[in-house]
Amino acid sequence: MDKIRYSQPVLRQFGLVNGRGLWTLFCRGLRRCWRAGWYSISGPCISSILFLVVFVLASDPDQTMVQGVTVAQFVAAGVVVLSLSQSAFEAGGIWLMEDKMEGVIWDLFSAPLTPAEIFAGYLLPAVTFALLVGGVVTGLIALLVGLSITFPLICLLFAMLAALFFAQIGVLAGILAQRWESYSFFEFFLVLPLAFLSGGFFAAAALPVSLKPVLAINPVFYLMDGFRFGLTGFAQGPILAGFLGLVVLNGAMAWGIWRLLRSGFHIKA
Amino acid sequence: MGRLNGRGLWTLYLKEVRRFLNVFTQTLIAPVVTTLLFLAIFSLALGGGDRQLGNVPFAVFLAPGLIMMAMVQNAFANTSSTLVISKVQGNIVDLLMPPLSAFEVTLGMAGGGLTRGLLVGLSVSFGMWLFVPLQLHAPAFVLFHAVMATMMLSLLGMIGGIWAEKFDHIAAVTNFVITPFSFLSGTFYSIERLPSEWQLIAQFNPFFYMIDGFRYGFIGYADGSLAVGIAVMLLVNLILWWGAYRMLATGYRLKP
To answer: Is B46 in contact with A181 (Cβ distance < 8 A)?
Structure first.
C-alpha cells in the first residue's frame, strides 16, 4: 500500500527581492501595454511620421536648422523623444490609475511585495515599452530620412533616461491623481509643455533672450539634446553635465516616489 | 408629441453639452495649451527672419489652421466617445429606448459635438489672439467653415462611434483617419509646396477645404477654389448626415 506523503507546510522565504513577484508584475505590465499587439504602437508611429513630414513640408526647401543640420535631421530627435516620452508617461501612469480606480491595487498591497517592488512593477514595463516605441520610431525615421546614427550607445543612454523620467512622472501622476480628470491634467499641463518647449523642435538660438533660462532649467532640453547628439553628433548644450544632472534627477524622483508609495499616500486609506 | 419630440431633443442635447462642460479643463482649456505649444514650436523653428507664407507672417498663416484642427478633433471626440462609452458600459439602451426618432438622435448628438467644436474654437482663438495679430477678413467664411467642419467631424464621430465596439477601435479611427487627414490638410504649409501630383491628391482631402476656407476668412488668401470648398463641405455633410441617420434608423451595431 502506497504511503501518502504530506509535505510539511513551510513559510516561503524571500531573499532581498521577491524575484518571482517582480517578474510577474513586469510581465503583467508589459502585456497590458501590448494588449493590441503591434497595433499598440501604431499610434505613436503614425503621429511621429506625420509630425516629421509636416515639419519638412512647412520649412523652406533648403533651410537648415543649425550648422548644416537639416530640418529633418534636427527634428528627428525631437520626434523620437516626444513619442517615447508620451508612451512612457501613459504606460507609467494609466495602469496604476486604473488599478486605483477599480480598487484592484489592493491585490498588490496585500501580496508579499515591498513598496520598491510595486514601484518597479509599474515603472519597468513602462520603460521597456517606451524604449520599444522609441526604437521602432527611430528605425522608421532612419529609413525615411536616411539617418545614420553617429553614436548609438549615447542615443540608447539618453533614451533610457527619457523613458525613466517620463515613466516616473506617470507613476507620480497615478499616485497623486484622485480622478481621471486630474490625471489628464498632468499630461496637458506638465508633460506636453515640458516635451514641446524643450528645444526638440527649434534651435535654442531662436528663443528670445528672456526665455533662454526657461529652456536651461527644463530637464527635457538635456534629454533631447543628448539624444540628438547621439543621432547627429551635434549638441546645443553641455552633454556630460546634462547626463549627470539627469541621472541625479531621476534618482531623486525615484526616492521621492518610493517614499510616497511606502507611506501609502492617496492609496491606503 | 408633435412631429418633433422637442423636449426629448433638447434633453439629449443638454446631456451631450453637460458631458463636456463637466470636465472643461480637459475639453476647453487643454486644447488651448496644445494648440499654443504647436504654434510656439512651429513659429520658433520655421518662422524666423520674417518668413512669409500666403502674403502674411508665418504665425498668422498657421493660426487659423491650428484653431480649425483643435475644433474638429474635439467635435469628433465628443460624439465618438459618447457612443463608445455608452456601448461599452451598456447604457446605450437609454438612448435607444426613449421616444426619440433616428433623426432626433442624430440632430441632438451632432448638436453636442458642434457646440463643443465651436466653444473650443472660441477658447483657442482667444488664446491665439493673445500672441498672434488675428484679423477677420471675411467673417462669413469663418462662420460657415467653422459650422460645416465641426458638423462634419461630429457626424464622422457618430459613424465611427456606432461602428466601433471597443475603445481600441475608435482609437484606430483617430490614428489612421482623423490625424493623417488633419495633419496633411495644409495647416502647416501651402500646398504649392507639394510636388504637382501630390497637389492633386491634396485637393481630394475635404480637410483641405475646411482649413483653406476658414483661413481665407482670416487672411484673405486661399490655396484652392473657394466655391469648390463650399460645395465640398455641403456635399460631404449631406452624405454624412444620411449615413449617420441610416445607421441609427436601421440600428446597425446598436440593436441586436
So the answer is: no
**Residue range A16-29: mean pLDDT, rounded:** 92
Which one of A188, A207, A220 makes the best mutation probe of the B interface by having the most chain B beta carbons within 10 Å?
Answer: A188
Half-sphere exposure of B155 (CA within 13 A, CB side): 22
Identity at A161, one-letter amino acid code? L
How does pLDDT run across A172-195, given as a tens digit for each residue?
999 999 999 999 999 999 999 999
What digits encode the pLDDT tens for the residues A223-259? 999 999 999 999 999 999 999 999 999 999 999 999 9
A218 touches chain B (CB under 8 A): no
Q: Exposure pattern of A216-254 as b/e (b: 16+ CB <10 Å)?
A: eebbbbbbbbbbbbbbbebebbebeebbeebeebbeebb
Looking at residue B51, what is its pLDDT? 84
Stretch A191-218: mean pLDDT, rounded? 91
CA–CA distances in Å: residue A77 to residues A95, A155, A204: 28, 9, 14
- Where does chain B show beta strands of DSSP type E? 52-53, 56-57
CB-CB under 8 Å, A59 with B34: no
The complex's ipTM works out to 0.90
Give the pLDDT confidence of A118-136 residue by residue, as tens digits.
999 999 999 999 999 999 9
Q: Which three cell numbers stand for residue A22?
A: 517582480
Tell me the shortest Cα–Cα distance from B44 to chain A, in angstroms: 6
A188 touching chain B per CB within 8 A: yes
H-helix or E-strand containing A137?
Answer: helix A115-145
A114 to chain B, minimum CA–CA distance in Å? 33
Check: CB of residue B202 under 8 Å from CB of residue B208.
Answer: yes
Question: Looking up cell 529652456, which residue turns up?
Answer: A215
Which among A196, A197, A215 is the top mutation candidate for probing chain B, defined by the most B β-carbons within 10 Å of its own β-carbon?
Answer: A196
Strand, coil or helix: A103: coil
- Give me the pLDDT at residue A269, please: 66
DSSP reduced 3-state for A63: coil
Q: Which position has the grid cell 521597456?
A: A128
DSSP assignment letter at B177: I
Tell me what pLDDT residue A186 has. Answer: 95
B36: chain A residues, CB-CB within 8 Å: none
Q: What is the CA radius of gyration of chain B?
A: 19
